[in-house]
DNA sequence: AACCCGTGGAA
DNA sequence: TTTCCAAGGGT
């Protein structure tokens, strides 16, 4: 049972600061207007999962311009949404985004549910996003815990337990300081504080509205919180990709399987990136190899992709599923970053592009 | 529970 | 240059 009024000073100090210093962001209703659109709140929250505000802003505008409502998004083609998401990363989010939009538009009559529990049941909405949408879009009291809140709370209470084991302790502390009213503003205020003042390194304690309430501020090194366990080293992998270009100015592209790494995204044909030392190319041809492999770093491994180039006669088509894509429209293919860079490298060897 | 899943900016 | 890590979710 939550005890009323235990830490109301923290919430009131923070909200007073937020009323003056809140960041103006495209998905935020202007100050004073209580008109948060659940569609825009949900879309922004999904885009912001593990992704910086600066990276999200252009994608948010592109999506809301093209699909202004959840019904419009639900009616979009899968390939269009995946291509529009290209470059933002974590592509399972885009697949779940569409599944969620279609569930809301179809089963729920176009209205997002207002309760945390029913939001949590939708695809791509976990504990954090359910709480954030319930609080920000619907004014419900919900305990919103993201990486910013974890950091701020760990510092406020100088929590010594290392992450991720500290999660229950941090959530309980966040619950204690979450107010009954303005929970959405409180959540956004905590995240603004974490993004602009209570930053991971070199926090600006001198201008922090919660300095007097902060146990970490009274220690020698506030930035030492939250404590984290050492992380494992990233393994390195190698792979091969094939650029097959036809004399009429087209290149052979494939779509990756719906699950797993870069799932559902358009791509160059490539080997798996495990151990196979010398995989066979898709077809017999006069292959040349680019001098510099494309280097790319994923979340849990780094990759060096060697690109092989062949120029094919117009009557040859590689085996398996794929499509001939016009070289002058390569930007519209919706490549994830690895293949966008691989295509850029291969285009230097292109014979058929103006 | 531990692992998988992208990208790019900051220091 | 390398390292860190961001409005996490799914399995």
From TrEMBL:
SMART domains: ENDO3c, FES. It holds the Pfam family NUDIX_4. Keywords: 4Fe-4S, DNA damage, DNA repair, Glycosidase, Hydrolase, Iron, Iron-sulfur, Metal-binding. It catalyses: Hydrolyzes free adenine bases from 7,8-dihydro-8-oxoguanine:adenine mismatched double-stranded DNA, leaving an apurinic site. GO terms for molecular function: 4 iron, 4 sulfur cluster binding; 8-oxo-7,8-dihydroguanine DNA N-glycosylase activity; adenine/guanine mispair binding; metal ion binding; oxidized purine DNA binding; purine-specific mismatch base pair DNA N-glycosylase activity. Residues 47-196 form the HhH-GPD domain. GO terms for biological process: base-excision repair; mismatch repair. CDD domains: ENDO3c (cd00056), NUDIX_DNA_Glycosylase_C-MutY (cd03431). Its cofactor is [4Fe-4S] cluster. The keyword Secreted does not apply. Binds 1 [4Fe-4S] cluster. Belongs to the Nth/MutY family. Adenine glycosylase active on G-A mispairs. MutY also corrects error-prone DNA synthesis past GO lesions which are due to the oxidatively damaged form of guanine: 7,8-dihydro-8-oxoguanine (8-oxo-dGTP). This is Adenine DNA glycosylase.
